[in-house]
Write a structure and sequence with these properties.
This protein is of the alpha/beta class and 275 residues long. It has helices at 6-30, 71-84, 106-113, 134-141, 173-179, 197-202, and strands spanning 37-45, 56-60, 88-91, 122-124, 145-146, 150-156, 159-166, 187-191, 207-210, 236-240, 243-247, 265-273. Strand 6 and strand 7 form a beta hairpin. Helix 2 packs parallel to helix 3 (106-113). The chain is globular, with a radius of gyration of 20 Å. The model is unreliable at 8-22 (pLDDT under 50).
């Protein structure tokens, strides 16, 4: 068998890598972005009354309803959450893509989310792709209470649990402190961007729920989630001081309609008092 030249070997390897890359991208487009999973996690919440131990939250975020994220994709996520029968449902923002420029999917996004209901209600915040008018109005139409730099108190089993919701563009600690003023010891900050963990930890807010990262959306071997390295937590549970955060990979995609090693998810989070 004749010996392969260095040039031929390099060309063969390059073509092989390109073929593997194309195949992986094709899988991420055709299959990976639709492989919805249900993530179940238990989170410790400082100040949570014993009576609220076991409270279950359904978290959906980064819907990104668009030409690439269909009604069926969102409906499948909604059905997965409803099958779990959570006590409370929270929505983490980015209901559409580029909502400030193209609002044609605002109504369809809300329509797909309309079946959501929970005994303690459905609440949401806005992400960086959501406008300040059409998206909140569409969500209000289906019974979602949108928290825009606001706090609301839930009374559950005769105990208090506060939800603090901020917009994506609310970043300064003073602004978040204003929204969290007089919050109950058991409080949750719903912030689209997980970088708000820093401010929440400084304010001693016990729990943050976020999205925005898509878990990286494309997670490569060895190098990981290149597009999400600037975030303190890319996906799952993290901790800073006495503040816990959970970051969801979300449901949709943006920029490229591909997910690789990073399936879409809905999260079912069970609260327990911290030691």
């Amino acid at each position: 068998m004749p010996r392969m030249s260095r040039r031929t070997a390099l060309k063969t390897l390059t073509l092989g890598a390109a073929a593997v890359g194309a195949g992986t991208a094709g899988y991420g487009y055709a299959v990976g972005r639709h492989e919805l999973s249900v993530t179940r996690a238990t989170l410790s919440l400082r100040g949570l009354p014993a009576a609220l131990a076991g409270l279950r939250i359904g978290l959906l975020t980064d819907i990104h309803r668009s030409i690439w994220v269909s009604h069926e994709d969102v409906s499948r996520a909604v059905a997965a959450v409803m099958a779990e029968r959570p006590d409370l449902i929270l929505l983490g923002g980015d209901y559409v893509s580029w909502g400030g420029q193209d609002r044609s999917y605002v109504g369809p996004s809300a329509d797909a989310l309309a079946p959501l209901s929970a005994p303690q209600g459905v609440f949401g915040v806005l992400g960086n792709h959501d406008d300040e008018h059409a998206v909140p109005a569409a969500l209000a139409r289906i019974g979602v209470q949108v928290l825009r730099d606001a706090r609301t108190r839930l009374t559950i089993r005769q105990e208090s649990l506060d939800l603090i919701g901020i917009r994506f563009w609310t970043k300064r600690a003073a602004e978040i402190a204003a929204a969290a003023r007089d919050a109950a010891p058991a409080s949750i900050l719903l912030a689209h961007d997980p970088r708000r963990l820093t401010e929440a930890a400084a304010l001693r807010i016990p729990l943050v729920l976020s999205g925005h990262t898509h878990g990286g959306q494309v997670v490569l071997p060895v190098v990981g989630a290149v597009a999400a390295q600037k975030f303190p937590v890319v996906a799952g549970i993290g901790q800073q001081n006495q503040t816990t955060i959970f970051v969801s990979r979300g449901i949709g995609t943006v920029y490229v309609p591909v997910r690789i090693n990073c399936p879409p998810e809905v999260a079912i989070l069970t609260l327990q008092p911290s030691a």
